[in-house]
Amino acid sequence: MSSEPKALDRRRPFRRIGNDAFIPTRALDGDGAACGCRLERDLGDIEAKLDQFVKDTRDTVVGKTVGQVIDFVRLLLNPSKLGDLLIALIKKELGDVAAALLTPLIVAAGGALQLLLTPIRALVESIVGPIETVLVVFLKTLARPVMLRANRVLPQWVPVERGLSNTSVNRRQVIEVEGICTRSFGNPVDMPLINWRTWFAWNVEVAPEPEYSNVFSPAADPPNTSGASGGERSIIPPGSFEIQWDAGALLSAGEQARFQTRIADADTPSIDGPMTLDAAKAANPEIGSELDTAFVWPMPGMFVWASGRHVYDCSRVTHKGSGNPSQGDVEATPPQMCALMHPARALATARFQAVQFAENGTFFVPAIEFMFIASRRGGYIRHDTMADEDYVFVIDLPPGPAAA
């Protein structure tokens, strides 16, 4: 972008300059599969695979265990077999003589028990009889959508440029974007299986400035909304580009350890942003100095700039219909994935406010607070560097005092 001074703009109080190398110039094709995303069709014939799995597990420990449970239920409801079992137990524990003496009593009791158990056995047999068929149907009903969803997030994010690493982030994967924030929130939805995260993602949605239009994929975000009903609507405002950063990854190694074990509900406010450092320490005096998040939490309407990894989200893919595989919908041909920034490595925002500077005593004056944060820590992946070169911004100053 040009390094010329910017015009005063209260909605856009700063501008990044000298970053032409990080503004995407090539339109994306949305082909996440070519970059490493997995497709439903990669699983092949799921029904046939589940049938084979059920067949194979009959001879496994799980299969034998299920079979033993069924046999045991039938045994308890068969007086003859139950009597044989009881006699064998007596012989083992008390010897042959005791078994011989008690056998007539057990056989007689079995006859009476036969009359008592007949109606119960008929009822249970009607359930136990087809239990294997029921298990097969249940497995297919449960396993199919789970397999489809799991397949989609193995991995969940891949670089938009083909052939690049999915274990570290170099300069070729990094882009920049800036625009007006449309929403900012903690994301509790994504549950990646490989690209694991320390804590909820910090999501910042922005409406990019025109020169950053190539950050988008052809697939809208979200890509499938035809299944929505009533007043349902996406939490992502139309035309927004998503920036994600693992909130827990920004903490030190010691503070991250708290996220590796269960966190009590009562402790959640002490680790959830945004909050000032004083408020965080009041909630939990043991926290360190890295949790001051309120200073840089963009709110809708604020101008935001970010640098980070340009990726496809493999879980956000175009479908025919509502986009719900469990309802029989299938991927579009060819399928396209949404693009976003994840993880960020630097983020900036700014706000005008009245500030009480020490030299002014009790008098408040107009000021702009420029807020900037940078880190290599991305959670599931690390950036090679926090910056490939200096970050340079032009920042508006508040209007000076009126002339006398």
Low-pLDDT stretches are 286-291
One letter per element, helices H and strands E, the order comes to EHHHHHEEEEEHHEEEEE
Number of strands: 11
Percent of sequence in beta strands: 15-25%
The gyration radius over C-alpha positions equals 32 Å
Shape: elongated
Major sheet: 7 strands, antiparallel
Count the DSSP helices.
Answer: 7
Structural class: alpha+beta
* Average pLDDT metric: 76
Share of helix, binned: 25-40%
Question: What is the first-to-last residue Cα distance?
Answer: 38 Å
What would you note in describing this structure?
The structure is a single chain. This protein has 404 residues and is an alpha+beta fold. It is 27% helix and 22% strand. The strands form three sheets. Strands 2, 4, 5, 6, 7, 8 and 9 form a seven-stranded antiparallel beta sheet that branches. Helix 1 (46-57) crosses helix 5 (131-152) and helix 3 (79-94) runs antiparallel to helix 4. The longest helix is centred in the first third of the chain and has 33 residues, at 96-128.
